[in-house]
Amino acid sequence: MTESTEDFKNHTRRTLFIFASVLCGTFLMVGASFAPLRNPHMNLVLVLVAACCNAFIVAGFLMHLFSERKMIYTMLGFTAFFTVMLFALTWIAEHDVPQVLVR
Amino acid sequence: MEIPYTVEARPDTGVYNAKLGVWLFLASEVMLFGGLFSAYVLLRVGTPPELWPHGWLNVKLGTLNTVLLASSAITTLLAWAALKVKKFNHYRIYHGLTLLLAVAFLVIKSTEYNDKFHHYEIVQTDGKIADGHLVEKSADFDLVKKTGEVTLHHVRVVEKTEELADLRHAKPPGEGEVKIAAANIKKMQNYGPYHNNYLGIYFTLTILHALHILGGAIVIAFLWGPGSKMWKTEPERFTNRVEVSGLFWHFVDLVWIFLFPVLYLT
Which of B8, B36, B85, B144 could be stapled to A8 by a disulfide with Cβ–Cβ 3.0 to 4.6 Å? Predict the structure, then answer.
């Protein structure tokens, strides 16, 4: 509770800049989905890249993950590991089907 | 009994207890949504590309909801920052705005759901499929007894259901109303979660997300209203409460950042 009014003004300015970045990211995402590209998979990739950029801004600045404690990073590291494993398990299950019909 | 470490950081973790608690909760939430996103990926890759629906949702409304949530994330952060400099009135304004934005998000989402429940796919006895929004059912309408009729507007008539899968570049539907007699209807179903896998996962993910919005809004409303009494007695503890509720709110925004492109844009 020691921050000054000047800090608050700076914080507000920075927050509004972040808001503008997120809005730009959102409109880029929508634009990328409608862009007439030769390969439709490129639209998908561009949209997901824009979404990841927006997520990075929200998590990093708004959730203060750029300046968190080691304990939080450790916990999120485990979360990331288990989430990746979760996706990997379902992916493996998808491919775990017999290639030849067994009677 | 005094609850320890509500304000000061615990020496071994480096953070106050509520913050560690909310991050642990968010970790479990990542796993919950991760499982459902994983289900989405499996459903999508397991469906032939030409059958996966595209352009079924209103991108303008989805974009508006994204902007509303992003704005509410900003007002939440400003509310917390206002408390840090002891500007309680500013806090009330910013958190009040957050609440209004959350309600606006839920109203728009309900409008979208309502639209889906009034959107029908009608398979006719001649094999053609009429797809449009239900205006009314006649009083004597009965699909079993084959009496009465339904009136649709914004109707598309197609030969095969596959023609309705990708509507991104399709012609806009007709403006006029179309009446279909029950005697000519073989099957009719609205675009509820039972319609197909896409709508099943769409409703599951977005309803779960909307419930999170509702839960977060209730907490914010409490901190804005009766819970704000704590500001007078324990301002730092109250500020920390606002911070952890804000972390949850940002997480909900983060989930929407992925839901929007995955369901509306790709």
Answer: B85
pTM for this structure? Answer: 0.92
Identify all chain B residues contacting A12, using CB atoms and an 8 Å cutoff: 78, 81
Listed in sequence order, the residues at least 6 apart from B47 whose beta carbon sits closer than 8 Å to its beta carbon are: B197
A55 touching B (Cβ < 8 Å): yes
> DSSP secondary structure string, chain A?
----HHHHHHHHHHHHHHHHHHHHHHHHHHHHHHS--SSHHHHHHHHHHHHHHHHHHIIIIIS-GGG--HHHHHHHHHHHHHHHHHHHHHHHHHH-S-SS---
User: What residue segments make up the domains of chain A, in order of their start?
Assistant: 2-67
Find the residue in B nearest to A29 (Cα). Answer: B261
Task: List the structure tokens of B62.
Answer: 């989805």
Average pLDDT value for chain A: 87
Beta strand B177-181 with B185-190 is unpaired
Nearest Cα residue in chain A from B168: A34
Q: How near does any CA of chain A get to the CA of B29, in Å? A: 10
- The model's pLDDT over B37-91, given as tens digits with 9 standing for 90+, comes to 999 998 998 889 889 999 999 999 999 999 999 999 999 999 999 999 999 999 9
CA distance B101 to B71: 8
The per-residue pLDDT for B6 is 86
As for the ipTM of the complex, it is: 0.88
> What is the DSSP-derived secondary structure letter of residue B171?
P
Contacts of B84 in chain A (CB under 8 A): 1, 3, 7-8
* Domains of chain B, each with CATH number or no CATH: 17-115+196-265 (1.20.120.80), 119-190 (2.30.30.100)
CB A72 within 8 A of CB B21: no
Angstrom distances, CA of residue B181 to CA of A16, B146, B178: 56, 8, 10
* Nearest by CB: A3 against B30, B35, B84: B84
